[in-house]
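Structure tokens please, single chain.
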Amino acid sequence: MTWTDANAVGQFINRFRFFGHPVTVGYASGLTVYKYSSEPVPAPHALAASMGPRLLESKEPTDSGRPVRIPLTVPPGASRLAVNIWGRFGAHVRHLLDEAQPQAGSRPIEWDVTNDAGEALAPGSFIIRVTVDEQSESRIVHVRT
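Here you go.
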């Protein structure tokens, strides 16, 4: 009863972290992130309203060929847009985009499945993270041959 869905992205919980003595906050994650708090949790509609517009078209894991198409939406008034790619174990592989004063609206970004040095990466699972100002969203992409 004290756990709430923090970002509605999935299931398969396998990591837990608790903070404070006594514990005042905790997280459980997998494909979904849950947050425990000793403080009352806002109602879901209040959380959704405070999160701002959706950046990624979907946060569900997906399969892709090459290049990987990343449909995203930049909200009006954004001051910075960044897109970064990590390998499935957290190694940063590509700083794809860092743009000041990005144009608002929907647009696709393409990643050619190379690292920062321009070297082609082997097929595998990657985490795409889109950040606009202080808001971030991530998606897992399984890249095929």
